[in-house]
Amino acid sequence: MGYYDADYAGDAGDYGTRQSTTGYFFSLGTRAISWCSKRQPTVVLSSTEAEYRSAAMAAQESTWLKQLMEDLHQPTEYQVKIFCDNLSSIRLAENPVFHARIKHIEVHYHYIREKFLEGEIIMVPTKTVTPGL
User: Fold this and answer.
1) Rounded to an integer, what distance in angstroms lies between the CA atom of residue 79 and that of residue 40?
2) SS3 48
3) Residues 12/45, Cβ–Cβ less than 8 Å
4) pLDDT at 133
5) Strands 80-84 and 21-28, how do they pair?
6) N or C: which end of the chain has fewer CB within 10 A?
């Protein structure tokens, strides 16, 4: 199971690049097995695009983790649940009809859509948790 999120245009930095930050986390049972937090390589035009890019990175990691499990002779006949707090990015992955609205998103980020349509992953909406509240 995994979680992903993005911080839209959060990098004010010294040069004010306004690049978003991607983060994901995967667990097996109750243990963390993989995680990442890094700045996205380009500036995005919307929070949905930032989340969609994070979803693509999480989908790539889940594919790699499933292959690792197979290499270790562990059963992988299940969908990986990936939780997200952005319904728009989930809808983009589920609905291939939105082409006109998202054609500015780089093609390789549609990897998440492919994995969803193939049934390898399932995207599950979750609520945002704000620390300290």
Assistant:
1) 26
2) helix
3) no
4) 43
5) unpaired
6) C
CA dihedral 103, 104, 107, 108 (to 10 degrees): -140
pLDDT for 8 equals 80
**CA proximity to 58, closest of 30, 95, 86, 29:** 86
Q: Which residue has the tokens 């995967």?
A: 26
Q: Are 48 and 90 in contact (CB under 8 A)?
A: no
Residue type, 124: V
Q: Any idea what DSSP says for residue 131?
A: T
Residue 24: predicted pLDDT: 92
pLDDT value, residue 94: 78
pLDDT tens digits along 64-77? 999 999 999 988 88
Can you tell me whether residue 80 is helix, strand or coil? strand
The pTM (predicted TM-score) of the whole model is 0.75
User: Quick check: helix, strand or coil at residue 86?
Assistant: coil
Residue with tokens 């245009």: 9
DSSP per-residue codes, 22-38: EEEEEEETTEEEEEEEE
Residues of the chain with pLDDT under 50: 132-133
